[in-house]
Amino acid sequence: MTTRITGGRVFDPANGVVDAPRDIVISDGRIIAADGPSGANDEIIDASGCVVLAGGIDLHTHIAGGKVNLGRLLMNDDRARFPEPFGGMMCGCGGGRAAPTTHATGCRYSQMGYTAAFEPAVVGANARHAHLEMGDIPNLDTGGFLVLGNDDFLLRMIAEGDGQQAVNDYVAWMLKATQCCAIKIVNPGGINAFKFNGRALDLDETGPHYGLTPRRILNTLQRAVTELGVPHPIHLHGCNLGVPGNVKTTLATIGATEGFPLHLTHIQFHSYGTEGDRRFSSGAVEIAEAVNANPHISIDVGQIMFGQTVTASADLMSQYRNHGIADPKKWIGMDIEMDAACGVVPFNYRDTSFVNALQWAIGLELFLLVEDPWRVYLTTDHPNGGPFTSYPHLIRLLMDKPFRDAHLERIHKAARAHTRLAEISREYTLEEIAVVTRAAPARTLGLKDRGHLGPGARADVVLYVEQPDREAMFAAPRLVLKDGDIVVRDGEVVALKKGRTFAVHPPSDPLMDKRLERWFDEAVGLKSSHFQIADGEIRDGEGPELVETQP
Amino acid sequence: MSGYRLKLRAPLDARLDLTGITPAALAGLSSDAVARKDVFLGAQRVALGELFEVSSGASDALVVSGDPRLDGVGADLGAGEILVEGPVGADAGARMTGGRLVVRGDAGDGLAAGLVAGRIEVAGDAGAGLGSALPGERLGMRGGVVQVGGNAGLRLAERLRGGLVLVAGDAGAGAATDLIAGTVAIAGRLGPDAGRGMRRGSLLLAQAPASLAPGFADTGSHDLVALLLMARRVPELAALFGGGVSGRAQRFAGNRLVGGEGEILLLQ
Amino acid sequence: MTSDDESRDDADRIVTDVVCGFCGLGCDDLEVAVSGRAIRPIKACAEAARLLARPDQPPPAPRVGGQETTLAEAAAAAGRHLRGSRAAAFSGLGADLDGLRRVFDIAMTCGASFDHEASGGLFANLERLGRRGWIATTVAEVRNRCDLLVVFGPDPTLSFGHVFERLLPSAAGDADAAPLFVAGRRRRVVIIGGALSEAARRALAGQEVVEIPVPTDQVALAAQALTALLAGRAVADLPELDGIAPALVALVEPLKAAAYSVFVWNAGVLSTRDAATVAEAAAGAVDVLSVTTRAAVFPLGGRDNITGAHQAALWRFGYPLRTSVGGGTARHAPDRYATATALKDADLLLHVSAFRPGAPADFERGPVIALAHPDTVFTREPDVFIPVGTPGVDHFGHVFRMDSVVCLPLAPLRNAELPSVAAAAEAILDSLRRAA
Amino acid sequence: MKINGVEIRDSFAEAFPMAGTRLIITADTPRWARTAATSMTGFATSVIGCGCEAAIERELAPSETPDGRPGISVLIFAMSLKDLKKIVPLRVGQCVLTSPTSACYAGLQGGPAIPIGRALRYFGDGHQVSKKIEDQRIWRVPVMEGEFVCDEISGSVTSAVGGGNFLILARDRPAALAAAEAAVDAMAQVEGAVLPFPGGVVRSGSKVGSKYAGLIASSNDAYCPTLRGLVPSALPPEVGSVMEIVIDGLGEAEVAASMRAGIAAVCELGADAGVVAVDAGNYGGNLGPFHFKLRALMAPAGLAKETLEGGQA
Predict the structure, then answer these.
(1) CA nearest to B138, candidates B199, B97, B209
(2) Which among D157, D186, D212 is the end of a domain?
(3) Does residue C351 fall inside a structural domain?
(4) Residue A88: left if φ>0, alpha if ψ -120 to 50, beta else—which one?
């Protein structure tokens, strides 16, 4: 029994297919070659009038783990205002928009045509929790990026000159132990410095205790993931997040990569200058130029969207700096287990605020000025820049210049004078949207059977009814298929499926087991065997879906 | 007249949540449509008509028969009037932004929690946490007026942020805990441990308290023009204290432990 | 029976590095001897030893109306009761994560409010954490950074036997576990509250310990006063502080000078008001200190995986415990859905207690279903009793440590002949599905 | 037109728009309420030199005041709302806040908010207390004597009218003064209008401009009896002295009512008391939009209406 989707306009840029009238044929949850004639058993899905895309992939969205739960705790008002619609068995009795419940997260994502989402800040000590939550998210494949770069074990190794191989072994051990699929660095060395009462740490500043610069930590981990063959390069939340003038740091970081690939996440928060009488300006042009000139750099934007949200970050140094502008006035900070930290600060971005309005414009400038869509991934850094449910709106801002200009007219006047957004005429094409929301994230994460519609791919397929209002179009697809089964029809969730969890398991020297046993015993106060997450603990015994490493 | 009358068919044996059943929500609906409205009985949705006889009332007010398990009466009320002929349960008038709620009986816990504006009158006693903050919220009742004819329970006006609360009877333990601003007047006795964590605001008393939470300074007796002003601008306040507010009061300021500058005024 | 054969096969062995899920401290270095069904603790605190010990007896069978029956029959009976209920209250909730997830599924299906046996302290702390937040820390950070620990309240070792060994391990004389970042490796520990037990004193040997004796009902006042003094408020003259003011004043400079001070209290042993006040004061002290140095709170609590129940409720429903779910929505009301209050209006009680023999509260308004420890002594025979295994004894399970960050795996010690809470709940869900 | 032998000249008073408010000042005793009010409305005769125009409106019985103590109502006017918002807190701060036992309340509701406590509260150095009753916020500022209580704001009108006036042309100075006093007494009964000049009377009526650069007003020489013959005079030969009454009111109707009461009182004294004529000051109708025509004003009821309508320039 096969399913044939026929009559639609197919956008599959990973396979060079752009706006082609092609059939997509599905068998056993995977896409197969479409050249055979339709069999008698074919179920036909008529896609006429539809644009056919692979399932959407969000590679940076805070959907699970301790800090998200702290966000839920603080956002009771948001939770009450956005209950899941009552839909019989499809309702998980949850809700919330800025920090939605697991069930709501899966349903809302799949309602927009997304089939995979990645939690980009799994703290080792909290990894088991993050996986338990991810396992409770329906209709989405998930994966976690492990936060390293502030962990005392690593910093001590680097400081004591243990050598790259030891670092590689440690990184490999930690990835497997935490069942994560990439390495994230948050404010390299900075979170650790804050634990020693350091309040700022720039790229080439020496941190307390270990005497390491963020640059050195970054380079060491870049080399480690490259040598281990982890597909996604270091996922970097750089130094000085949100600090006016941090564009210098970001440019220096791009220049500090020593040729290793690097992903700069939520780069919007790292693209601020100090020009103008308010000492806050857009650095988007310089950043975009640097990204354009450095093909080994990729970015996601972390677009901010106006409205209430909550920011959740491992970067307690930055969050402590910002907690005074929390709205509502409450926030939670936490130092975590010699691994990292977290800070959860509710925010309300207002278009009447000069800073917020300019942040909004800077994000869009970056989207529009970085030329190669394969190196840009569409994110709001959910929920930090805004809830992921705003993606259809964001897509329209990118695809529709008059719509964008109309919004520009509404923002803080002085901010308007500080952005070049009005001069930018670029509009994203459907092909480019397919790249930034599907093909490109799959490629950078090493997901060979996701993000495209070629034979062998998982049958995660979305049919959007073509309409000029791109926000309406991307908000409510006609059909979403997860592994070949229809989970969303006309924007409504009609079935719940278990997702999978991606992980990488690069090999490590058994000696590292011994070293870490001792470290956990003596410093952490937890047995390393209890820190490590067994395959059987993932997805109720399903185990992880391993992503191939290519050393 | 456009108001509805909801008459309970039988006393409730589980808690019934009437949140959202307001004159505005019923305006323009046929009585059949009113009877089909969903409410929560225990943890389950039931139609209003299963529990109530729905009929047209004699006024614009929504008239409801009372029951101590009837929760959320007048919650989210924005305009219009709700009259309860008997007691209500928890969270009556919670989050109200306007209108008037009259309860001809006792009220349960959380009366006027998160109240923004409007008037609430309760003929009998009120439960714990009158005028307090909703779960997870920093601020309690922000405005409006609440009049209680009987006693108030524990933690009266906890985290109160504004508005006026008048209690003709006694107040339980922990009154004015973490009170932020606003005015609370108690004609009866004040329970123990009042004013813990109090930041600002006024607690007006007719009877000397047996004790207060630690952290108050006795600033002595004063003639306070503000009391004269309040007594004239708020006739209910003057009435609560028998009409004779002299302006003279002993003033306890605090709570010093939290850097607070609230006041507990013993009227003389 | 193959299970009998297997239990003979792995008779008489010593299991080390056992993870403990009882008090929430998350000790994972316990030792037990296992012989058939019997478990004999070798290395454990008194509480864990008591709860881990098992005789070599076959487990009791499920009962319906006092009559022994099968799990399937008991689950079917539970399902029938649940289907007839519209205002169920779920209490206890002493279960591993998987068990809790299934129990929540039942609540969503049938409609129920739920609360955990030990939630009093948690909700007192939420008065600060949920409304305003705080800066907290975790076990490993305390172990390695804390140079000044302030404890409010009675001796915490009474509830958490090895708390000082876990948090301040160097005191036990283990040189390898000396704190990495504490200058001189010697810490100051200030106890503001009850006198320390001998065990606590032993655990703290080698640290500089200051005891400020304060009666339990004055602990909240002392905590408030300390924070006020840190904030520069002149409150030392308050008559209520007579006797302790000098000791508190003497603590101000050391706290300001400390690199990483940590404030600890056990909300569960104070009155709700006092616990909330202590939480507020401790978090307030951290706010003041954080301007110039580092400090954090470390609330003690977490018995019987309450932290896991709190976490799972948040990620499932977006609200903490004491929430009613059903009819496609969730309504959170901490007062109304606290077990004692909820039972005044409920028409069914489902009680879960897998970690210890904890009987449900007296309840006469409707049927009682108990998924409980086999040794539970009931004052009233439940309408349905399904004896369940203990996570980390009879089956695998996940529990959260009290710092809410670390989730620990509990492995079975013996061959499970008792269903887990998850399995029992799944059987009930099954019967509900079949009936639907 | 003649009333009781007094000529009502065919002239008009030319008035201009102002922003104004009413404040109620109370104190423990009438003496201290009046003291605060007098001090607060002092040096407030003309916007030209004082920045505002203010005067006591009337005494209030305890039953009429917000706090039940003796009170005084005052009206205060400025050329713009901006000026009024500056001048009110300045004067209340210097003259009422400082005056023993006083309190200061809004005498108008609605319209643009004029800060009272909103500006003065900072004197409390953080110890000030606010209290919101219904929709009105009050401030309590600790002072050495107890507490200074005031409303946060007062309402205001921007349709106030300044510069209503009339001139009493009399045979001699005693006659002019007696007529002016009679007018002032009568006008004191009119609510919503005040006479900002000393005792309500101005003897130095002015014309616009001067031969000296920088002076925007100078002596109204056409009405100066001692200059008769030197300059073109507006005075008939029998007039030996002229006095002016200037009126500011919360609205056009109040000014008209006040003028009518004043002129009627003057006319009641009549020609026998030495009053010759009533005239009014204007600038040819080019400066102010409000024209109070004397004859229409003093005509029987039917015509009075026309005065007001016709007054809209």
Answers:
(1) B199
(2) D157
(3) yes
(4) left
Place of tokens 């000791």: C247
- Residue among C312, C271, C335 nearest C404 (CA): C312
CB atoms within 10 A of CB A536: 12
Query: In B, which residues are within 8 Å of A76 by CB distance?
Result: 134-137
**Closest chain A residue to the Cα of B114, Cα to Cα:** A77
Quote the domain boundaries for residue B115.
61-267
Yes or no, beta carbons of C311 and A129 under 8 Å apart: yes
Query: Which residue, C301, C324, C359, sits at the end of a domain?
Result: C301
* Range of the structural domain that residue D229 is part of: 2-15+160-311
Within 118-157 of B, beta carbons closer than 8 Å to C belong to: 128-129, 133, 135-138
- HSE value, Cβ hemisphere, 13 Å, CA-based, for D13: 35
CATH code: domain of residue D129: 3.30.70.520
First to last CA, chain B: 47
**C 263-282 residues inside an 8 A Cβ radius of B:** 273, 277, 280
Total tally of structural domains belonging to chain B: 1
Examine residue C96 and state whether it is found in any structural domain, yes or no.
Answer: yes
Dihedral sign, Cα of residue C141, residue C142, residue C144, residue C147: positive
C236 domain residue, yes or no: yes
| Candidates A70, A75, A76, partner chain B, best to mutate (most B CBs within 10 A) | A76
Q: Do A77 and B138 touch (CB under 8 A)?
A: no
Q: What are C109-144's pLDDT values in tens digits?
A: 999 999 999 999 999 999 999 999 999 999 999 999
Identity (one letter) of the amino acid at A181?
A: C
Q: Is B261 on the interface with A (CB under 8 A)?
A: no
For the record, the structure tokens of D135 come out as: 């929709």
In a domain, C42, yes or no: no
Question: Is A141 inside any structural domain?
Answer: yes
- Residue C277, CA distances (Å) to B210, C222, C378 in order: 22, 10, 36
C-alpha distances in Å from residue C228, one per residue of D39, D127, D165:
44, 18, 64
Instruction: Collect all residues of chain A within an 8 Å Cβ-Cβ radius of residue B137.
Output: 76-77
* Residue A255 counted as domain residue: yes
CATH of the domain at C372: 3.40.50.1220
Structurally, chain C folds into a number of domains equal to 2
DSSP one-letter code for A83: B
What contacts C198, CB < 8 A, 6 or more positions away?
none
Minimal CA–CA distance to A455: which of A41, A24, A141, A47? A24
Tell me whether residue A521 is in a domain: no
Residue A67, domain CATH? 3.20.20
Tens-binned pLDDT, residue by residue, of chain C (436 aa): 334 444 444 558 999 999 999 999 999 999 999 999 999 999 999 999 999 999 999 999 999 999 999 999 999 999 999 999 999 999 999 999 999 999 999 999 999 999 999 999 999 999 999 999 999 999 999 999 999 999 999 999 999 999 999 999 865 556 666 899 998 778 999 999 989 999 999 999 889 999 999 999 999 999 999 999 999 999 999 999 988 999 999 999 999 999 999 999 999 999 999 999 999 999 999 999 999 999 999 999 999 999 999 999 999 999 999 999 998 899 999 999 999 999 999 999 999 999 999 999 999 999 999 999 999 999 999 999 999 999 999 999 999 999 999 999 999 999 879 999 999 999 999 999 988 7
At B80, the amino acid letter reads G
**What is the ipTM score, two decimals?**
0.92
Specify whether the CB–CB gap between A365 and A288 falls below 8 A: yes
The domain in which residue A263 lies consists of: 56-393
A106-117 residue pLDDT tens: 999 999 999 999
User: For tokens 């003649």, what's the residue?
Assistant: D2
Residues C275 and C141 in one domain: yes
The answer as to whether B81 is a domain residue is yes
Inform me whether the C-beta atom of residue D147 falls under 8 Å from chain B C-beta atoms: yes
